[in-house]
Structure to design on (1106 residues):
């Protein structure tokens, strides 16, 4: 497929080439678009949002959607649309921090496990199995209880329960790559183990890790929102989507807007990451 | 084969010990003084000290772990700080509700997910396939507590069709189980689809086609039987994520199961309950995973989970 | 035909199964009450929670009871007297009373009930207050008991109606089962306790007071969700809701099928300022925060108007309360001026700790105080963590930089001493008591002590008026509001009433 495109490429203008590629990779395009919109909203939040996400107006609480407040106002009279927009910043930050931390810990552990002999391998994998045995939310609740309730602690908790995913993935990749000819050749050339890990194994494992990260991003947002919803994550007045819904739940039957819009925002963002992740996986591994 | 099963059986207690250690250590590191909480805001220091002794919190950590582990093996998980009832009895009272919810949700997920996945596979690239895949990816992207809130608002608050609270009749199961089933349905549909596609492209199915076996028979008897393995995998290995979902769903629906029990316990710093529920839930997950792996090993000796 | 039969049998079987699984689904003779939290214990002496006390009320009785007009009436004691010193009290007990387990109620039972609180090794949750003034309880004869007090205690009789002084069966207490299986002398006895779901109480046909007036059964359920409470009342899943979430008050008022009742509450909400931490050690700064607080706005936004802005450390229902005080009208300019005088023309930053259910107060104050230049950091905590942080000593609070704590205190109608002493007395400084900001004022301490030993009510209340002025002047707290207590019932429910402080009494409740 790819080779055909490059053959035709020089004769077509770039924009058409792009459209063609997009048509062939609909998932990546759609997912990328959704995430792109969210990222733009996050970056330009102060320009897009009509109000300040923290300023209260006690005379205009829990108003239904109107021209002045497209999503209505919350129980403190804050503009919900503004808070949803600013919430995108928090959600993307969650993804970057939690996934980054999980990758930073899990991947080296996995490669080390795959490269090392039995005991190190078994010790690491035993630890990972224990962590993996916990339902993510339950482990996160436990960790948050210990560290204290805050968004940062919640992200640490989510990162910890995501570590085994990356450790297992990179261990399997390492096991597969370890016996490849060029890695063995590097060994015999006397290249250090460390260099082999970083230059040979890691470089080849990066594709699947990126795919996994995109898919984990959705889980991160959902988990963070769930725990914030339960009151174990983001603290007021932070406009975190789950925390906003937690406020909204108190007024169910009186006002639905406080819960409706943050939930939609979560769904669109997670959908974006999932579609993008699916597309990337198909691109790397078309068999599935 | 035997060696593999033996290895799995031997690994089981190791994992359980690791889990109990992790839970125990985490619980001891919790901030907040349960003795002060239990003694109440007006308690004197003396009363708090008496409470500390009563709860055994003044003993050394290894001593506390030993008595915790010994108790857990005998089915004694201590006494709830909040209700002062035995944790085991409290869990036993709530567990049926969580299991009932989980079974209903799984039945729904299998009942909807498997046919949907099959239809998608049979009409691969056709509109049914597209529709199923879009729904599946949407289902995997939805926050289940949001869905729960919206469903509650529509069916209980606005329309008044379904009960809102805990368990009063069979109707109480409808919203929580549907909410909880969304994610596994999506996963099962996708899994069924891809394994059906794989199976259908295999030689013996093509041979059956060539022999003139009716397509319907092929789908149902040959293909589905082979697609069973991934379904078991999902049901067994995703039990953990279902439990996680139950924690949130139960909290939203005021469901008297162990998930809400856990969340409430965290709020009150009810150490023995957090400890007990986590241990029971995780042990359940570990054992479900183990059974799924065994079953798969028997059904298809080629597959290994290492 | 066979198919038909089969399906009929199946239907029958499932109907039976459903009946078995849900035996107590809506029955007309059951009064269903829903509160915000699960009971903490079945032992009234081992809990200090308002909603637990309300749940236990139908099953337990004390020597004295509070009547619907809030006066004190005989219950398990028929008459009582005090000697001239006010330190020795003698109670005649009611004859022919039995606990639900058949144990006889007599002087021995009373002595054992108080002995368990005076035993420091027991560590029962509600013992603290009794121990501060009660010296001993002895049996004079099988039907007479004598109480010796360490000091005079004006609220003594009122206290006899509360948790630690309700009579539990000594047999059940000795067996160690009282915490999970209630055994009292009350008009209702415990039928079933499912800790995750409900408490079911049934009429006690052997009650000394004759046939109980209420419904055959009382079922207690609970949820922490305000919307669920509201909905339960709307659908009739619950007959009585306490406390009723004020956000939904307007909705219920407009609905003829429901009845909303409000009573003057006794819980005073405040922000306790850490007087050992700069700049809050300066009284001008504390006053400035009081001026910067828009109490009316707070009451409107957080309580939908169902609260009274606080003008005194006492609640309006507390004896001695002075309604003429108005120390801190909302005035941002004045707050700024005071801060300037104190040397903080550009304001300052401080923190507050708050429990989840009151987190919005923190958010609202954050916005209000910002106008006076004060940057408030709100730390929301779960109950247990909050308690630990709130009850730290001065060094601990300095280390964690805890500038203030948001909380409430309710002493009901039981006397001003129960509000002043734990909150403002020097010796009550945390962690010993609930003086969370370590406020110390010898002048006020003197007033509190003097009032406590003044038996004449008028003279005592006069001292309390001065004490209120002194607290207002020194401003150890930013006083916010006194909550009005709301409860709601279905329109056909009668006989349910509330003791100021939030305790609901349902044992005489009837459904139409």
């Amino acid at each position: 497929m790819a080779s055909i495109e490059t053959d035709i490429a020089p004769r077509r203008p770039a924009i058409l080439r792009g459209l063609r590629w997009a048509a062939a990779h609909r998932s990546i395009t759609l997912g990328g678009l959704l995430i792109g919109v969210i990222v733009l909203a996050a970056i330009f939040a102060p320009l897009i949002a009509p109000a300040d996400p923290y300023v209260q107006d006690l005379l205009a609480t829990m108003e239904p959607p109107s021209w002045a407040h497209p999503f209505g106002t919350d129980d403190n009279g804050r503009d919900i649309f503004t808070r949803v927009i600013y919430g995108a910043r928090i959600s993307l930050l969650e993804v970057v921090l939690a996934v980054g931390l999980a990758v930073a810990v899990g991947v080296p552990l996995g490669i080390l496990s795959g490269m090392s002999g039995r005991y190190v391998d078994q010790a690491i994998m035993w630890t990972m199995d224990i962590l993996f045995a916990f339902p993510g939310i339950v482990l996160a609740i436990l960790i948050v209880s210990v560290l204290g309730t805050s968004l940062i602690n919640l992200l640490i908790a989510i990162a910890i329960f995501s570590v085994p995913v990356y450790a297992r993935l990179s261990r399997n990749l390492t096991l597969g790559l370890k016996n490849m000819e060029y890695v063995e050749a590097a060994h015999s050339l006397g290249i250090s183990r460390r260099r082999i890990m970083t230059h040979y194994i890691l470089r080849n494992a990066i594709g699947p890790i990126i795919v996994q990260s995109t898919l984990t991003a959705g889980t991160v947002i959902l988990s963070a929102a769930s725990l914030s919803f339960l009151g174990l994550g983001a603290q007021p007045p932070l406009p975190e989507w789950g925390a906003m819904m937690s406020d909204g739940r108190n007024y169910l039957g009186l006002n639905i807007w406080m819960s409706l819009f943050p939930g939609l925002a979560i769904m669109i963002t997670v959908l974006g990451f999932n579609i993008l992740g699916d597309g990337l996986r198909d691109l790397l591994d078309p068999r599935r | 084969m035997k060696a593999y099963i033996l290895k799995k059986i031997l690994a089981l207690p190791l994992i359980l010990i690791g889990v109990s250690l992790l839970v125990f250590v985490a619980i001891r590191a919790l901030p907040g003084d349960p003795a002060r909480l239990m003694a109440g805001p007006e308690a004197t220091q003396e009363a708090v000290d008496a409470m500390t002794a009563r709860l055994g919190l003044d003993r050394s950590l290894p001593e506390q772990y030993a008595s915790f582990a010994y108790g857990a093996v005998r089915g004694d998980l201590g006494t709830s700080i909040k209700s002062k009832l035995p944790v085991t009895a409290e869990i036993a009272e709530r567990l049926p509700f969580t299991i009932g919810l989980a079974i209903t949700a799984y039945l729904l997920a299998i009942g909807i997910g498997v046919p949907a996945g099959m239809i998608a596979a049979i009409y691969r690239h056709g509109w049914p396939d597209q529709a199923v895949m879009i729904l599946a990816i949407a289902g995997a992207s939805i926050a289940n507590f949001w869905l729960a809130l919206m469903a509650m608002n529509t069916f209980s608050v606005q329309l008044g069709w379904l009960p809102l609270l805990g368990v009063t009749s069979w109707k109480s199961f409808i919203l929580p189980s549907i909410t909880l089933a969304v994610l596994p349905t999506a996963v099962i549909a996708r899994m069924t689809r891809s394994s059906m596609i794989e199976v259908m492209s295999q030689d013996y199915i093509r041979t059956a086609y060539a022999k003139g076996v009716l397509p319907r028979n092929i789908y149902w008897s040959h293909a589905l039987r082979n697609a069973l393995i991934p379904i078991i995998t999902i049901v067994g290995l995703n039990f953990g994520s279902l439990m996680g979902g139950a924690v949130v769903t139960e909290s939203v629906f005021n469901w008297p199961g162990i998930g809400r029990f856990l969340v409430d316990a965290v709020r009150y710093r009810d150490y023995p309950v957090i400890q007990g529920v986590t241990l029971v839930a995780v042990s359940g997950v570990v054992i479900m995973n183990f059974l799924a792996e065994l079953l798969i090993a028997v059904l298809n000796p080629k597959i290994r989970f290492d | 035909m066979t198919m038909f039969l089969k399906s009929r049998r199946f239907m029958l079987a499932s109907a039976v199964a459903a009946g078995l699984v849900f035996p107590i689904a809506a029955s007309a003779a059951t009064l269903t009450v829903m509160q915000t939290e699960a009971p903490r214990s079945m032992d009234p002496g081992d809990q200090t929670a308002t909603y637990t006390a309300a749940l236990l009320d139908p099953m337990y009785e004390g020597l004295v009871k509070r009547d619907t007009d809030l006066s004190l009436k005989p219950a398990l004691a028929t008459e009582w007297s005090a000697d001239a010193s006010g330190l020795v009290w003698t109670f005649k007990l009611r004859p022919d009373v039995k606990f639900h387990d058949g144990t006889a109620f007599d002087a021995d039972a009373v002595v054992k009930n108080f002995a368990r609180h005076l035993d420091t090794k027991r560590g029962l949750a509600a013992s603290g207050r009794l121990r501060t003034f009660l010296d001993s309880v002895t049996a004079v004869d099988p039907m007479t008991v004598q109480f010796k007090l360490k000091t005079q205690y004006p609220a003594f009789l009122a206290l006899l109606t509360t948790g630690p002084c309700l009579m539990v069966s000594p047999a059940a207490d000795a067996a160690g089962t009282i915490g999970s299986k209630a055994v009292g002398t009350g008009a209702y006895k415990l039928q079933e306790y499912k800790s995750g779901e409900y408490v079911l109480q049934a009429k006690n046909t052997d009650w000394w007071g004759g046939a109980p007036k209420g419904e055959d059964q009382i079922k207690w359920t609970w949820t922490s969700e305000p919307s669920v409470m509201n909905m339960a009342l709307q659908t009739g899943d619950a007959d009585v809701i306490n406390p009723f979430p004020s956000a939904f008050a307007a909705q219920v008022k407009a609905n003829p099928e429901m009845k909303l009742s409000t009573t003057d509450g006794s819980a005073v909400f405040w922000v306790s300022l850490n007087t050992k931490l700069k700049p809050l050690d300066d009284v001008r700064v504390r006053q400035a925060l009081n001026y910067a607080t828009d109490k009316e706005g707070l009451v409107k936004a957080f309580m939908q108007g169902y609260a009274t802005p606080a003008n005194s450390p006492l609640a309006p229902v507390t004896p001695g309360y002075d309604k003429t005080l108005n120390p801190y009208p909302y005035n941002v300019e004045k707050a700024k001026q005071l801060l300037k005088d104190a040397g903080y023309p550009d304001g300052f930053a401080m923190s507050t700790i708050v429990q989840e259910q009151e987190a919005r107060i923190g958010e609202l104050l954050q916005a209000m105080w910002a106008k006076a230049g004060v940057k408030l950091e709100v730390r929301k905590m779960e109950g247990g963590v909050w308690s630990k942080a709130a009850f730290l000593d001065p060094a601990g609070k300095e280390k964690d930089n805890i500038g203030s704590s948001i909380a409430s205190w309710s002493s009901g109608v039981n006397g001003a001493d129960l509000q002043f002493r734990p909150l403002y007395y020097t010796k009550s400084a945390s962690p010993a008591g609930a003086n969370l900001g370590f406020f110390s004022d010898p002048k006020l301490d003197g007033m509190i002590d003097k009032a406590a030993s003044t038996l004449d009510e008028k003279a005592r209340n006069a001292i309390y008026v001065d004490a209120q002025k002194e607290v207002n002047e020194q401003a150890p707290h930013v006083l916010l509001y006194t909550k009005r207590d709301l409860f709601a019932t279905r329109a056909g429910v009668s006989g349910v009433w509330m003791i100021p402080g939030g305790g609901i009494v349902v044992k005489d409740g009837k459904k139409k």
Observations:
- Residues 1-9 of chain A have pLDDT under 50 and may be disordered.
- The two ends of chain A are 16 Å apart (CA to CA).
- Residues 193-229 of chain A form the longest helix (37 residues).
